[in-house]
């Protein structure tokens, strides 16, 4: 069985599923490379939205420690570089897409699993989900962008609390501190994630991409440079086919039909 399954439907919705449910979807080399293949498939395809899920009872428990424990010394060092290189490139490719990403997380979300959840634009958590940084508990430091994304989501002080103490964060607290977008009953997670991804699939993908890049750049840019970037992005969006369709639909008092506009 493949570690990561990618399905892109005719409407441009990509469903990316971590398939090692029996192992808590732990990330070893095969899974990391599978995520990179999935990201590249989305990059090549006419994808309008991405839905990331994990099979089984846990979304992702982090790195595959059983795989890592079979190695030591230089061999372990090289192996972890290979794993993180693939995983990190996958995250970069997903981040560069115009298509927004929705993640549906359940059960245990730990280590790199938090990085995957944080990489999504909209992260839905089952009310039974729980988050644990876990890295320093085994003498590791973070990967999967966690040392960057977690402080941005919850603030540096709280991020250090989570990273150093490895305390368990239930879903309700995760939503309260900004780690996830919202919490839904576990029985409704799959349906709500599909509805959310489908709504985004029908949206203005080009404008979504510009918005994603503006939000990412705005975390570090100075005000004048960011306002200039906003102005240029807005002008480009307004002049695009999506922008013209959006305004025409508004003035015509109808729903916009963004999916009829071909993707580049």
TrEMBL record:
<dbReference type="InterPro" id="IPR014748">
    <property type="entry name" value="Enoyl-CoA_hydra_C"/>
</dbReference>
<dbReference type="InterPro" id="IPR001753">
    <property type="entry name" value="Enoyl-CoA_hydra/iso"/>
</dbReference>
<dbReference type="InterPro" id="IPR029045">
    <property type="entry name" value="ClpP/crotonase-like_dom_sf"/>
</dbReference>
<dbReference type="Pfam" id="PF00378">
    <property type="entry name" value="ECH_1"/>
</dbReference>
<comment type="similarity">
    <text>Belongs to the enoyl-CoA hydratase/isomerase family.</text>
</comment>
<dbReference type="InterPro" id="IPR051683">
    <property type="entry name" value="Enoyl-CoA_Hydratase/Isomerase"/>
</dbReference>
<protein>
    <submittedName>
        <fullName>Enoyl-CoA hydratase/isomerase family protein</fullName>
    </submittedName>
</protein>
């Amino acid at each position: 069985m493949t570690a990561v399954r990618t399905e892109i439907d005719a409407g441009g919705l990509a469903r990316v599923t971590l398939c090692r449910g029996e192992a808590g979807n732990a990330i070893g080399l095969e899974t990391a490379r599978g995520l990179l293949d999935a990201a590249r498939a989305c990059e090549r395809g006419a994808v309008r939205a991405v839905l990331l899920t994990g099979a089984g009872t846990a979304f992702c428990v982090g790195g595959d420690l059983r795989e890592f424990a079979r190695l030591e010394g230089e061999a372990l060092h090289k192996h972890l570089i290979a794993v993180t290189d693939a995983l990190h490139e996958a995250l970069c490719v997903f981040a560069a897409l115009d298509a927004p990403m929705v993640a549906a997380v359940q059960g245990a979300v730990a280590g790199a699993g938090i990085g995957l959840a944080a990489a999504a634009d909209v992260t839905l958590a089952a009310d039974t989900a729980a988050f644990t940084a876990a890295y320093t508990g085994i003498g590791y430091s973070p990967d999967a962008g966690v040392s960057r994304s977690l402080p941005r989501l919850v603030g540096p002080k709280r991020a250090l609390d989570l990273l150093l103490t490895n305390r368990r964060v239930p879903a309700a607290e995760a939503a309260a501190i900004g780690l996830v977008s919202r919490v839904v009953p576990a029985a409704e997670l799959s349906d709500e994630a599909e509805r959310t991804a489908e709504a985004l699939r029908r949206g203005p993908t080009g404008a979504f991409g510009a918005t994603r890049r503006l939000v990412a750049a705005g975390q570090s840019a100075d005000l004048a440079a960011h306002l200039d970037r906003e102005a240029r992005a807005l002008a480009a969006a307004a002049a695009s086919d999506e922008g013209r369709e959006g305004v025409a639909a508004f003035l015509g008092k109808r729903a916009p039909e963004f999916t009829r506009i071909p993707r580049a």
